[in-house]
């Protein structure tokens, strides 16, 4: 079945009796015909001529037959519906099972906890549902079906736009809305008036002997095609976006900067077709970072605003002609193709470490990562170029917390109670030994591998732990030098994205909404007016019949018919008397006259099929 | 405090919501009275229309039997036009002759009085309810839909507003009153107990014009989809009732009394379809607004976040429903099941994802754990 035809006999008005009937669908029957010609000799191939040539021809016919049959199935409304439903089902698991793309840690945790289930999920790509083979299969099939459906429908629609509204069916009584009356006016006069009326109502009209046909609401079909076409644009835009986009994160100290090249990123992800050459050339400095928080009320400690004040330069800009900008949540900075989003912030304690010889072995800010909303932050300080008191190379490692507003209690130990630095304290424990940096295994800068390290302890063997306020120094035990907490700086983390095809996605969405609105709110309907000398009435009377047929059931369509009929009655006043609705007699069951239903109105007047009549 | 959130106003708003609940409860009792008194009338019009006497598919007039139009001229004279009677056929022609039920009051005068009282009380409760939502908005100085308490109260407010709107437009929807007020009471009860959160400000990620568009539309869509769903459930019940009568069966006393008074299955189906069809483009736009917001907040317009996923599933569900209505063999009951499933997806997105799926970026639910 081609989509158009199928939708035709499928679309509303009237009749579960048309359901599934092969009726109007002329091309759905080649299968049955072929089978009838040569039963048992194959589905489509017909009679097989003797010899290899015959067999080859038969096979070819058989294959094309099956191919065409499959294509018709795929582009039928029913299969489209099933695929749509499958897509909805297939989308579900990804929201309930952790996804590797979104949160690899959760996936690892899940696999630890549920070993067998984890393996099973792994096998069925449940941890990456939205790029899995089965998910892709469903949506690709759906979109092939969609394309196979809208192309023929577009041609058909173009044909309808060029053609004229189809002639009135023989039996208007079978239409979804019908009315009739008798008048003393001449049939020609009535039709002329009706024609004028319909044209003024902006219908496309066509006159025939004894009747007028009119049609309106073509925008519905146009909207429907626009909607389905826009879905394809949207899908392609999304796919292109996935393939060409890139996205990376960078933590920048206040006062520091970032240049948009691959090596500067802390982490970087990109689509399969992304080219590093395409990175927008620009760099920026983070001049200042501001954060403000509620200091009272029920929302104590929740953020009010974050602002990153930056200066940026595009390729070719003079160094002293940077442009200033403010980046806030929801308000990224756009530079060419790239967008810079503010995604996080935190503190970096500034420490200076002197070694056993009194030389400065380390100095500078060390970013700590926030652990909670009050910005209790954890981090490590690694001192690699260090010599001890005896001049021997050694390494130092410190691990601890930075609390902007320090609190200490038994339950949580040292932590922060407010995200602003009201009482900043750096809490550290220390180690010396081998940091394991040259083992070749990449190390996380925020973690300390304590395997080959020895912890500083007090006299009784308990780990030493110190709380430092800005300016405080820690004499390391055994004359190993000092660690001074100089103060803190702020850092902000940014995500730099280079999206692709966003414009197309937006265009697709706008098209989809507009198309859908037209498609669902506009009624496409046909109206017929017939005026003929009344055979059953006194001579000189005319029987006027009006009927309308909509593509969907809408109360508006019969109402409109009523209005038009009332307007026409001004030109063709009804004669008093009984039987102003011959419909009831005509519609009585048992009559089996065929209706002449037009073939290309999408909504077949299935009333016409009620007794199995096939147009 | 930097932005003045006014706890006093919020408390007063909550008080108004409590008063609204009290009035809704009285309205609920009045609706019950309407149904109870209505059950005394014995109107078996459906059976008659489906019975052996009537020809199958005896057409019904489009707008009842109101074929006379009275035109009042400026001078004060009136003339009566006989409007042409339009005969209609639907997708289920066998049911076209089935008239709409008489409504909850069943033509009983006292029942009708109670029904009118119930509607008046619903209007009063709606006003109190609206006041409660408004005060909450004034108290927090922003649109009142940043957490589940605000979302729930606004949601039921819009649903009741939609119902009253249909009544004002003279739609045959008074039967909706009882199921609607029942669920509104449940929703508000949940809102003031489990979901209540103190006034709070929006975290920076939620401050955006697109939030406003996205969430307000989501509320409107949800409330209207809800009305559509109630009509769909009524359609399913009524359809089975009519089917049983058409097969010559005798339905139970309860359905004979209650379902007989509902509109016909054809009317219910149309009503539900029209709501869903009008809301669907709006829902599409809601998702797009959300995507635009996500793109400005997180740097990608679509990231398969659970909230996004479930709004897509809801969308696909309603698309299935609309498609089914245009597919041979899927209209009627099957399509109705799809519509209900789609609404359940909406509901899950609204409550379920907030409560059960914990790694969503949309973590603004504000429910204390
Ligand atoms: C991504 C998949 C699809 C979605 C989301 C979708 C959605 C929709 C929606 C919401 C409607 C209702 C609009 C209306 O009633 O005018 C509709 C109508 C329609 N769709 Fe689709 N569709 C999809 C795929 C398809 C496919 C694959 C076909 C072809 C077989 C198709 C054929 C049709 C037809 C013929 C109508 C018009 C029915 C009518 O006039 O009532 N659609 N579609």
UniProtKB/TrEMBL annotation, chain A:
GO terms, biological process: cytochrome complex assembly
| Annotated protein name in UniProt | Cytochrome c biogenesis protein
Q: Which keywords belong to this entry? A: Cytochrome c-type biogenesis, Membrane, Transmembrane, Transmembrane helix
Is-annotated flag, keyword Cytoplasm?
A: no
Segments carrying the region annotation (Disordered) are: 1-38, 569-615
Per UniProt, residues of the ResB-like domain are 77-561
Q: Which InterPro entries does this one have?
A: Cyt_c_bgen_Ccs1/CcsB/ResB (IPR023494), ResB-like_domain (IPR007816)
What's the short name of a Pfam family annotated to this entry?
Answer: ResB
PANTHER family in the record, alphabetically? CYTOCHROME C BIOGENESIS PROTEIN CCS1, CHLOROPLASTIC
Localization in the cell? Membrane
Q: Name one GO cellular component term.
A: membrane
Tell me what topology the record assigns in the membrane. Answer: Multi-pass membrane protein
Keyword Nucleus assigned: no
May I ask which residue range the UniProt record assigns to the signal sequence? Answer: none
The organism's taxonomy opens as: Bacteria, Bacillati, Actinomycetota, Actinomycetes, Kitasatosporales
Q: Where is the composition biased (Low complexity)?
A: 10-38
The transmembrane residues are 79-97, 133-155, 225-244, 503-522
Residue ranges annotated as coiled coil are none
> Which domain of life, per UniProt?
Bacteria
From TrEMBL, chain B:
Report membrane topology: Multi-pass membrane protein
- Enumerate the UniProt keywords alphabetically: Cytochrome c-type biogenesis, Membrane, Transmembrane, Transmembrane helix
Domain Cytochrome c assembly protein residue range list: 145-355
Q: Does the keyword Nucleus apply?
A: no
Intracellular or extracellular location(s)? Membrane
- Please provide, alphabetically and separated by semicolons, the GO molecular function terms listed in this UniProt record: heme binding
Organism of origin is: Streptomyces aidingensis
Give the protein's recorded name: Cytochrome c-type biogenesis protein CcsB
Q: Which GO terms describe its cellular component?
A: plasma membrane
Sorted alphabetically, the Gene Ontology BP terms of this entry are: cytochrome complex assembly
The record lists the membrane-crossing segments as 15-33, 117-139, 151-169, 176-197, 209-237, 271-294, 309-328, 335-353
């Amino acid at each position: 079945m081609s989509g158009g035809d199928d939708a035709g006999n499928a679309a509303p008005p009237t009749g579960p009796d048309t359901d599934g009937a092969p009726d109007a669908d002329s091309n759905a029957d080649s299968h049955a015909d072929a089978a009838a010609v040569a039963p048992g000799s194959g589905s489509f191939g017909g009679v097989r001529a003797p010899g290899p040539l015959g067999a080859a021809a038969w096979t070819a016919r058989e294959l094309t037959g099956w191919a065409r049959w499959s294509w018709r199935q795929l582009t039928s409304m029913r299969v489209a519906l099933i695929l749509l439903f499958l897509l909805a089902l297939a989308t579900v698991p990804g929201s309930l099972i952790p996804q590797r793309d979104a949160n690899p840690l959760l996936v690892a945790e899940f696999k630890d906890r549920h070993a067998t289930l984890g393996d099973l999920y792994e096998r069925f790509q449940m941890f990456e549902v939205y790029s899995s083979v089965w998910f892709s299969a469903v949506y690709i099939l759906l979109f092939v079906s969609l394309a196979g459906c809208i192309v023929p429908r577009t041609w058909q629609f173009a044909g309808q736009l060029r053609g004229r509204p189809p002639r009135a069916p023989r039996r208007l009584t079978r239409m979804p809305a019908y009315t009739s009356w008798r008048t003393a006016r001449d049939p020609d006069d009535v039709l002329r008036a009706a024609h004028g009326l319909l044209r003024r109502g902006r219908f496309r009209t066509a006159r025939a002997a004894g009747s007028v046909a009119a049609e309106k609401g073509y925008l519905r079909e146009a909207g429907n095609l626009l909607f389905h076409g826009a879905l394809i644009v949207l899908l392609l835009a999304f796919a292109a976006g996935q393939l060409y986009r890139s996205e990376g994160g960078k933590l920048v100290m206040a006062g520091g900067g970032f240049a948009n090249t691959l090596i500067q990123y802390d982490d970087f992800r990109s689509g399969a077709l992304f080219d590093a050459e395409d990175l927008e050339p620009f760099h920026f400095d983070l001049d200042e970072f501001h954060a403000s928080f509620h200091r009272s009320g029920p929302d104590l400690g929740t953020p009010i605003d974050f602002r990153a004040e930056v200066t940026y330069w595009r390729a070719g800009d003079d160094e002293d002609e940077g442009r200033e900008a403010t980046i806030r949540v929801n308000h990224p900075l756009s530079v060419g193709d790239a967008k810079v989003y503010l995604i996080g912030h935190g503190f970096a304690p500034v420490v200076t470490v002197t070694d056993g010889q009194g030389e400065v072995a380390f100095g500078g800010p060390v970013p700590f990562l926030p652990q909670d909303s009050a910005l209790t932050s954890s981090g490590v300080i690694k001192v690699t170029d260090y010599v001890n008191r005896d001049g021997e190379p050694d390494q130092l490692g410190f691990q601890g917390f930075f609390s902007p507003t320090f609190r200490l209690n038994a339950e949580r130990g040292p932590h922060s109670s407010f995200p602003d630095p009201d009482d900043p304290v750096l809490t550290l424990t220390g180690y010396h030994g081998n940091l394991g940096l040259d083992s070749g295994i990449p190390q996380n800068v925020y973690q300390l591998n304590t395997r080959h390290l020895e912890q500083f302890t007090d006299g009784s063997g308990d780990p030493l732990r110190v709380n430092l306020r800005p300016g405080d120094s820690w004499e390391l035990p055994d004359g190993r030098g000092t660690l001074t907490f100089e103060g803190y700086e702020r850092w902000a983390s940014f995500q730099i994205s280079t999206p692709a095809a966003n414009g197309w996605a937006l265009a697709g969405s706008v098209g989809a909404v507009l198309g859908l609105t037209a498609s669902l709110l506009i009624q496409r309907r046909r109206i017929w007016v017939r005026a003929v000398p009344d055979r059953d009435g006194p001579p000189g009377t005319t029987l006027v019949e009006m009927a309308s047929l909509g593509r969907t059931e809408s109360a508006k369509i019969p109402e409109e018919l009523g209005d038009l009929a009332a307007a026409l009655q001004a030109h063709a006043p009804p004669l008093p008397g009984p039987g102003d609705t011959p419909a009831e007699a005509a519609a009585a069951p048992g009559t089996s006259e065929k209706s002449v239903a037009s073939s290309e109105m999408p909504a077949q007047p299935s009333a016409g099929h009620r007794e199995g009549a096939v147009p | 405090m930097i932005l003045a959130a006014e706890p006093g106003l919020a408390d007063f708003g909550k008080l108004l919501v409590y008063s609204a609940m009290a009035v809704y409860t009285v309205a609920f009792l009045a609706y019950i009275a309407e149904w109870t008194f209505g059950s005394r009338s014995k109107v078996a019009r459906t059976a008659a229309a489906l019975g052996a006497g009537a020809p199958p598919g005896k057409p019904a007039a489009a707008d009842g039997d109101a074929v006379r139009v009275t035109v009042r001229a400026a001078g004060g004279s009136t003339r009566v036009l006989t409007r042409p009677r339009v005969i209609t056929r639907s997708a289920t022609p066998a049911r076209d002759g089935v008239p709409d039920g008489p409504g909850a009051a069943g033509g009983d005068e006292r029942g009708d009085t109670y029904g009118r009282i119930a509607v008046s009380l619903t209007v009063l409760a709606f006003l109190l309810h609206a006041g409660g939502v408004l005060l909450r908005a004034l108290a927090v100085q922003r649109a009142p839909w940043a957490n589940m308490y605000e979302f729930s109260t606004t949601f039921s407010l819009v649903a009741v507003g939609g119902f009253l709107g249909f009544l004002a437009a003279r739609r045959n929807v008074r039967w909706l009153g009882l199921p609607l007020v029942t669920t509104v009471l449940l929703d508000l009860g949940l809102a003031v107990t489990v979901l209540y959160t103190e006034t709070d400000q929006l975290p920076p990620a939620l401050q955006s014009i697109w939030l406003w568009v996205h969430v307000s539309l989501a509320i409107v869509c949800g409330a209207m989809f809800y009305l559509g769903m109630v009509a769909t459930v009524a359609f399913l019940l009524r359809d089975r009732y009519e089917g049983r009568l058409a097969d010559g069966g005798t339905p139970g006393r309860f359905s004979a009394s209650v379902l007989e008074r509902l509109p016909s299955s054809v009317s219910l189906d149309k009503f539900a379809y029209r709501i869903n069809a009008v809301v669907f483009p709006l829902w599409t736009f809601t998702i797009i607004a959300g995507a635009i917001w996500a793109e400005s907040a997180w740097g990608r317009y679509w990231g398969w976040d659970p909230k996004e996923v479930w709004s897509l599933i809801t969308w696909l569900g309603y698309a299935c429903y609309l498609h089914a209505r245009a597919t041979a063999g899927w209209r009627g009951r099957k399509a109705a099941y799809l519509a209900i499933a789609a609404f359940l997806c909406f509901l899950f997105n609204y409550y379920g994802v907030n409560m059960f799926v914990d790694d969503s970026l949309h973590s603004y639910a504000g429910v204390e754990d």
